[in-house]
Amino acid sequence: MPRLLYCCLLMLMTCQVALGATPLPLHPLPTAEQLRRQTVFYVGEVPAATLAEAMSPGARFSPLIERKPDLSPGGRWLRLALHNNSSQPRRWLLNLGVPDIQRLEAYQISRGQTEQLVSLRPDSRFSDRSVPSRMLAVPVSLAAGEAATLYLHYRIHGDTPLQLALQEPAEFAQTLGLGNLFNGVLVGVLLALLGFALLQYRALRREAYRYYALMLLFVVLFLLQIEGYNFALLWPGAGQWNQYAPAVLVVAVHLTHILFTTSLFKLNLSFPTLYRGYQAYAVLLLLGLGAFLGADLAWPLLLVSLLFMPLPVWVGVQVWRRQLPAAGHFLAGAISLAVFMNVLFSFGVSGVWSWPGVNVFVYPKLGYLLEAVLFALALGQQLHSLSQRHEAALRHRLEEAEQLARAEADKHLALQAAQQQQLQLAAAGHDLSQPLSSIRFALAALRAQAGNEAATQHIDKALDYTESLLQSLMAESKAGFASRQQGLNLEDLLVQAHTRHQHAAERKGLYLRYFPSSATIAGSGLVLTRILDNLVGNAVRYTERGEILLGVRRRPLGLEIQVLDTGPGFDTSLQKQLLAPFEQTGTLAAERQGHGLGLHIVQALCEQSGYQLSIRSVRGRGSVFGVLIPY
């Protein structure tokens, strides 16, 4: 008996609702705007938890166009009266315009019968959907001339407004297909930028490129999430995680955005106040995410996301005022993100305001696409500026090397001239000692003659003084000549070069060693140090596995310092090209880390110092670079 009374009451309320609402004709199909104006939402003072409460005589509904944001946990009730005014039974799909939802119950009431069309919970699987598509839809079937009322009870994070559209199944599939095409192009562009960033990071090892690539990765995942691809393809059985994924991904995007900005402009050094602001925002962001995951509160995270808007823009303004490279493109990208993501999308997804006729999920696509392209241009502009400054520094370094080589050559010639002069003075002193000895013998003969004692004593003292001066001059010449012949200990040079490059070699897994030597040479330690640094630096850069050996060999014409490696080697026909400034083979990835100056500097220093540079190499086996220093 109670069951019968309940059914009668339900039928009575159904008739009241049907009489109180004018059904919307479905032939031709109404537009989205017409559908929105026909839909009403529940505004009762007491939240309706069940269908019976929503259909009670005292239930009040208002037009959906008067809807205001409501973050209450009870959810919303929508009502829509429809009429199949055609002569054939028809089936439609009510496209909700969202990829996922926390809770959804859809009912169709017609001819006194209630049919539940959809029932989804937070932990529902993808396979639980009545329409297996990445965007949520409710199936609606009406016989010819049949009128029905739809009730939707739903709850969605942030009270995102549903983008209702009634479509034929073929039109619904076409809409999804066009969306797939647009999303494919968008994701393709972003993935191309991601690949470019990874290649640049591998070549240049700049942290900004790594963080830019991470940011793009999370942007792609976020865009795929809000279009429903992740739930349909990546985790179709994890309904609860799918509810959390959008918030987690947007937080990841913001955090990598902070890392990218901080690394690009070195905020911790250039703008410490902004750097601390970013740190504080990161903490607030994580707290907002914790509130969302732990207490199912969406508004703290939405509020923190809105607070993010002024930070990148203010950073862009500050770096632009200082006229730093990439400032203009970065500022434009920050403004694009702020307008499309932080304003339009945040307001739209929270139901505060949305542009009429525009799906709110279009805004993040446009915002992130513009930001990604402009940030890529910013990275390219900064890299170009750094390359120009680096090239100028390299040319200055080359000029300094050539000046040093000329100075060493002039010093060598001056030392040789001074040494020759001292030898000439010593020889002249030696030759002068002979006639002085003859005069001394003649002086002894004069002593035998009476009356010449005083004169002979005076001449004798003068000769003693002259001989002491000549002996002192010859001793100084001998000492100066000997000091200039004191050489450099080659083992000391090898040890120093080994110490300077050991860390770089170990980082690549290379075995760098030297062979002890007791040889010494006469030469400039500064010149030989620069020669060794360039040769060993090149060996470490281009050798991927194996070892590098430093040593000294005795040759018939002098001592040869050698640097041997197990690198890729090269054809001897390329030797002339490699000795030219700013020239490389163009076949090795490691060449991006160099500039084609090392061998040219070595050759210039060897030519100016009178050394001989030799190169022997076998492709695939390694190379030997030798510097012959004459005895």
Give me a quick take on this structure.
By secondary structure, this protein is α+β, with helices and mostly antiparallel strands.
Integer-rounded radius of gyration: 44 Å
Number of strands: 17
Q: What is the 3D form?
A: elongated
Largest sheet: 7 strands, mixed
Helix content percent band:
55-70%
Q: pLDDT below 50 for ≥5 consecutive residues: which ranges? A: 1-20, 481-486
Describe the structure.
The strands form 4 sheets. Strands 1, 2, 3, 4, 6, 7 and 9 form a 7-stranded mixed β-sheet that branches. Strands 12-14-15-17-16 form a 5-stranded mixed β-sheet, covered by helices on one side. α12 (327-349) packs antiparallel against α13 (362-447), α13 packs antiparallel against α14 and α15 (490-507) packs parallel to α16. It has 18 helices and 17 strands. It has helices at residues 2-20, 32-38, 51-54, 169-204, 207-226, 229-234, 239-265, 267-270, 272-295, 299-307, 310-321, 327-349, 362-447, 453-484, 490-507, 525-542, 575-578, 598-609, and strands at 24-25, 40-42, 61-63, 76-83, 90-95, 103-110, 113-120, 137-142, 147-155, 165-167, 488-489, 511-514, 520-521, 547-555, 558-565, 612-618, 622-630. The protein is an alpha+beta fold and 631 residues long.
